[in-house]
Amino acid sequence: MSLDKTLENVNSSLEKLTTDVSQLLDVVKVAISVLFAALVFMIVALTLLCCYIKCKKVGYQYNSILSDAEKRAARSPPPLIMDGKRLSFDSDDNGKS
Fold first, then answer.
1. Would you tell me which of 23, 63, 87, 91 could form a disulfide with 95, CB atoms 3.0–4.6 Å apart?
2. CA angle 27, 30, 31 (to 5 degrees)
3. Dihedral angle at the C-alpha atoms of 7, 9, 15, 19, nearest 10 degrees?
4. For residue 52, what are the domain limits?
């Protein structure tokens, strides 16, 4: 009888241990899932941030080009049209085009 009681105790201990290990594995699965979701979120956020910075940089360059063109347009007088030819005051060929 003593052996039967010992086997029952060992069996119940193993069942308890199996349950505890199973719960621990469930906790580890949840933790890994949360870490994976956070990693995916950070990758998406970094990608969006890089795209935003690139778009801002390209937009700044585009606006800079536009503002330079606007400055040049404000400095130079409008072209004169005589006999179907366009005269330009900015060129070096003095209207020979």
1. 87
2. 85
3. -160
4. 2-76
The reported pLDDT for the residue numbered 73 is 63
Report the alpha-carbon angle 73-77-80, nearest 5: 120
- pLDDT tens-digit map of 30-62: 999 999 999 999 999 999 999 888 888 777 666
Domain count within the chain? 1
Domain membership of residue 85 (yes or no) is no
Q: Which are the contacts of 21, defined by CB distance < 8 A and separation ≥ 6? A: none
E strands, the chain, are 80-82, 85-87
